[in-house]
Amino acid sequence: MNVIDHVRDMAAAGLHSNVRILSSLFLTMSNNNPELFSPAQKYQLLVYHADAIFHDKEYRNAACKYSMALQQKKVLSKTSKVRTSTGGASTNIQAQVCFNSLPSEIEVKYKIAECYTILKLDKDAIAVLDGIPSRQRTPKINMMLANLYRKAGQERSAVTSYKEVLRQCPLALDAIIGLLSLSVKGAEVASMTMDVIQSIPNLDWLSVWIKAYAFIHAGDNQRAINTICSLEKKSLLRDNVDLLVSLADVYFRAGDTKNAILKFEQAQMLDPYLIKGMDVYGYLMAREGHLEDVEVLGGRLFNISDQHAEPWVISGFYSKRYSRALYLGAKAIQLNSNSVQALLLKGAALRNMGRVQEAIIHFREAMRLAPCRLDCYEGLIDCYLASNGIREAMGMANNIYKTLGANAQTLTILATVCLEDPVTQEKAKTLLDKALAQRPDYTKAVVKKAELLSREQKYEEGITLLRNALANQSDCVLHRMLGDFLVAVNDYQEAMDQYSIALSLDPNDQKSLEGMQKMEKEESPTDATVELDGDDMEGSGEDGDLEGSDSEAAQWADQEQWFGMQ
């Protein structure tokens, strides 16, 4: 047993810090005396040394050392050819056995690509993996290539690589999801798994699973929900956390907040360490006004792992400053550049800070990653409207309407843009009526219809609309809007009750608080005058100005601006 064997055994035992020190010493000895180790031994030392550095997360250094190992392998290949041409048969066999027992050159190239991927050097990673002949590519190499191609927008190459993964590993479900996300038909994907389904017992659910995810990526939310529910009801797959998270996410996409939250909570109860999907859950909870619960959720996720995007995104939802949310969103994207929720968080922060063009870039990237998520399009449309780009907003809304069909959500998005132009007010009303005919409880459609009725001063009609919507749900914005309509018809007592309910649902709802305070002042003008005089006397210096100087925090208190309720 030689020294290289000792290094190899320590590497296999996970003694990475020991390997790093020892291999470094041996490599220095080899540089000072090239005859000390054979080319094969030096190659091994370089690979084990690079592996130890990779384990220490020094990825740029590791990539450099792996590249040095590949250079050494070329030297080794040349010397082995010379020996083969001059040596006898037994010598050649021994040399071949020794050569085959060395660390795989393909594996070394994969490690280099892994380093480049972590360093966000995707083009370099693709170049390294492209250099491996197709027949020598292992499933993990094809999977990494597929993901890199997809990220780079090379969809055809990504499809080819995903299919190669499935050819070698027909139960690679993430590769199946990759193909479906690239618009490959569900039937074609299912055909690639048919042999394994028929040959292995208890796999009959897989074809239904593929169908469910095909519906998800086609944007057919209702059929996706029905299919996942049919899977989840099967005794063998009941209480599967991944299925529950997927079901919650589809409910969210369909605009069914109540069921989305319910399924996320169910998944969380089954797996207290769950991270996947918790950013969407946190977003929904924040939108409902449960900011304290969101803060608790963020803290719990940080205790589980701070190397995932989700806890950083959730922290952004209860941050009181746009600049802080911007930082948290950027940090989340740094950890996971494919995090749609992180892109939306950062985009919303940029938009609210007036940096609309930068926000547009982030919303467009979110759209590319999740073409069936309407909140990505809504963010972009809000940016266009904020910069008076009604034509661009209208074009985007029409495109969504044509691509995803006439459902309550797409109709409401188109109506929202139409409301911005006096010429298309009637069209907006027609679209909202169609949306509410499909889903009378769809909050965004109710809110927009109520806004339209308020403009037209049709307060009684607005009160009826809001009462009907609140018959089967309790929503802060709807209660507050009902309060506003009741004030308009001089029903102050019930208006006060509605504002109180709104504040009980979301204590941070600034508009409900303002409505209530305005009513209190109108009811007792004498008291209000006395109070005002007293306040003026106490706050006549600069201290009063300082307390209210944080305009950003005041803007942030308006939850609808941040969470897209209106």
UniProtKB/TrEMBL annotation:
Keywords carried by this UniProt record: TPR repeat
Highest taxon, organism lineage: Eukaryota
Compositionally biased tracts (Basic and acidic residues): 515-524
Keyword Nucleotide-binding recorded: no
Acidic residues bias spans: 530-550
A GO cellular component annotation in the UniProt record: anaphase-promoting complex
Intervals holding TPR repeats: 241-274, 340-373, 476-509
Stored InterPro entries: TPR-like_helical_dom_sf, TPR_rpt
One BP term from GO: positive regulation of mitotic metaphase/anaphase transition
Region (Disordered): 515-566
Protein name listed in UniProt: Anaphase promoting complex subunit 7
Species, as recorded: Echeneis naucrates
